[in-house]
C-alpha cells in the first residue's frame, strides 16, 4: 500500500537515527550469523534484536496507515452521502490490507 510506504518515508525523515540503528542491527545479525552460524545463541540474539526493530517500524506504519485510510473512507462516504458505519469501514480496511 502506497500510504504505508509514505509513512515509512516520514518515519525516516523524522527519525533517521532509528533507521541507522535498524541498518546497523541488520548488518550485525548478518555478520554474526556468517561468522558463528545461524543457530549460534549470539547470532539468534542479534537476529531477534534486528527483527524486533523492524517489527516496531512496520507496526507503526501499518497502524497509522490504517487510521489514515479509515478516515479518508469515512470522509469520502460522507461527501457522497453514502451510509458507511465505522464497523463497515474497518472491515473493508482489514480486507484491503490483509490484516
Quick take:
With 99 residues, the chain is mostly helical. The protein is 86% helix and 0% strand.
DSSP E strands, number: 0
Strand residue percentage? under 5%
Continuous helix count: 4
Q: List the uncertain runs.
A: none
Radius of gyration: 19 Å
| Structural class by sheet pairing and helices | mainly alpha
Average residue pLDDT? 88
Largest sheet: none
How would you spell out the order of helices and strands?
Answer: HHHH
Classify the helix fraction into a percent range. Answer: over 70%
Oligomer: single chain
> Looking at the structure, what is the overall shape?
elongated
Distance between termini? 12 Å
Amino acid at each position: 500500500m502506497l500510504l504505508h510506504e509514505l509513512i515509512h518515508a516520514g518515519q525516516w525523515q523524522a527519525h533517521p537515527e532509528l533507521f541507522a540503528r535498524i541498518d546497523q542491527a541488520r548488518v550485525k545479525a548478518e555478520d554474526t550469523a556468517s561468522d558463528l552460524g545461524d543457530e549460534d545463541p549470539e547470532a539468534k540474539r542479534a537476529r531477534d534484536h534486528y527483527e524486533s526493530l523492524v517489527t516496531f517500524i512496520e507496526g507503526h506504519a501499518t497502524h497509522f496507515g490504517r487510521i489514515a485510510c479509515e478516515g479518508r473512507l469515512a470522509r469520502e462516504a460522507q461527501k457522497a452521502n453514502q451510509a458507511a458505519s465505522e464497523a463497515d469501514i474497518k472491515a473493508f480496511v482489514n480486507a484491503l490490507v490483509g490484516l
